[in-house]
Amino acid sequence: MKRVPLLKWSRVFFAILFFLPVTLFFIDFRDMFPDRVSALLEYQLVPALLGGFAGILLFQFVLALLFGRIYCSVLCPAGILQDVINRLYCIGKKKKKGTRRFSYHSPMNVLRYGLLGVTILFALFGFTGLLMLLDPYSNFGRIATNLFRPVTMWINNLAADFLMRVDNYSLYHVTVTTVTTAALIAALVALILFIVLVAWRGRLFCNTLCPVGSLLGLISRYSLFRVSFDKNNCIQCGLCAQSCKAEAIDAKQMTVDTSRCVDCFNCIGSCSKNSLTYRFNPVWKRDRVVLPVELSVDSSATPHPNGRRSFLATTVAIAGSVSSVSTLANKIVPIEDPKIEKWPPVTPPGSLSLERFKDKCTACHLCVVQCPSHVLRPAGLEYGFDFLLRPHLAYIDSYCNYECTVCSDVCPTGAIRPLTKEEKITTQVGVAKFMIERCIVHTEKTDCGACSEHCPTQAVHMVPYEGTLTIPAVTEELCIGCGGCESICPVRPVRAIIVKSNIEHIFVEPPKEEKVKEVQIDDFGF
Question: What is the pLDDT of residues 479-502, one digit of tens each?
């Protein structure tokens, strides 16, 4: 019995050790955490897959093959969040024998593997939207960015108001600027889905909708270490099944569905007879391979003569529904309107191209919260369904800092490739376009020049116009599309200078530095 608490609490300890810094990194609005904390997120399965990090993928697959789905209980922030929700759900709820009671259910293999197959198929054809919506890490990122972080900032503001009344100014007010309507809705839907599924049937999301859980479940069927029954000691009391939040233990048959077991070890702690142990139990040492009920060839199991047909029907239905949603979204917000020129979104420096960014970005919004100038905003449907929730440069009240590389430093998927400062200042993500008919120099015959003053490369400069007036002009070869000119332009509602995005990013020559003439002063100059 001494090993039982050690297994469970070791798992809890490492889960907290991983979950806390990751969560704090997302909600850190004071930039107290260093960017290197983002290295923890590189161990997420989907970012590693999209980023092509073969070493991390191999590590995760070997980990599942050796120990089962440890990833789902220790390394996946969405899985740990569901455990937190389950713990909160139990507070104040009348419990029997000290734990919430679950019960064994047959796995919904048609749905879980159908979703996995469709997700992989869509990703191979360049559509990662379904993967973005189902990826557990990305859903956690959107929840933390658009819900937890604003709540933390609101609490900070309340505390700042209270402290100011007692002449303490250690805290200051902060404003939420990066949360868009689409991002807020997506975060709310994901959190509500987690809460409902956890309250209903524990880790149902992980074992039904999550493609990462389904993929690791296929590997963990053959894991070397697993929770196993000692059938000589088991009295079939059912306490283990009642404590299994994955609903993977059939106490009557004394079997554990390792494809759904997330290695939380709650079952071992609930067993009073030591009949459940986590031990070395490979396939070749077992008398027979215990298959899930839906795949069992036992004559007592419910037959499924139309299993393959149901799988194909589910796959086609999912594919059709996603295509229909995409078509509907494009009808509501057309990507190309022949009457109105609609420019594509400006993607972050390091994304290389719009198509590459759409293929690799899962909209976790880590770059959004880490951007020091808050110029990155999640998109709604204004750029079509295939760019939904992905971040873009929105020069509403800010611009991309000239030498800043934070977004490329923290991106876990490689959607924003790491850049040096030298590469950053020469990466052209777009080109400023000047509309003279909107400029107040032209319409109001008054001086301005704000756009020129805020251009770090002097791509926007002032040229003679009428009389003593000067008006902006753009040297496109020098422009990097940082948006300094657009963000400061006083013209409303449509600004006089707007950055038009580059579908493919290009590199331009760095601006030439002016030589400072040395002046020798022989006296004080009076």
Answer: 999 999 999 999 998 999 999 999
Q: Tell me the backbone φ, ψ of residue 267, rounded to 5 degrees.
A: -65, -40
The amino acid at residue 97 is K
CB atoms < 10 A from the CB of 328, how many? Answer: 11
Entry pTM: 0.86
Residue 305 has pLDDT above 90, yes or no: no
- In which region does residue 389 sit, left (phi positive, over 0), alpha (psi from -120 to 50) or beta (all else)? left
Given CA atoms 203, 207, 212, 215 in this order, what sign does their dihedral have?
positive
Structure tokens at 152: 């933390």
Burial class (CB in 10 A: 0-12, 13-18, 19+), 173: exposed
Residue 280, beta-bridge partner list: 225
Q: What is the pLDDT of residues 251-287, one digit of tens each?
A: 999 999 999 999 999 999 888 888 899 999 887 776 4
- Could you say which DSSP state residue 387 is in? G
List all residues 6 or more positions away from 334 whose beta carbon is below 8 Å from its beta carbon.
Answer: 342
3-class secondary structure, 279: strand
Contacts of 283 (CB under 8 A, 6+ apart): 222, 289
CA 50, CA 413: separation in Å to the nearest integer? Answer: 6
Look up residue 247 and give its amino acid.
E
**Full set of structural domains in the chain with CATH:** 3-295 (no CATH), 354-507 (3.30.70.20)
List CB contacts of 91: < 8 A, sequence separation 6 or more. none
Strand partners, 377: 392
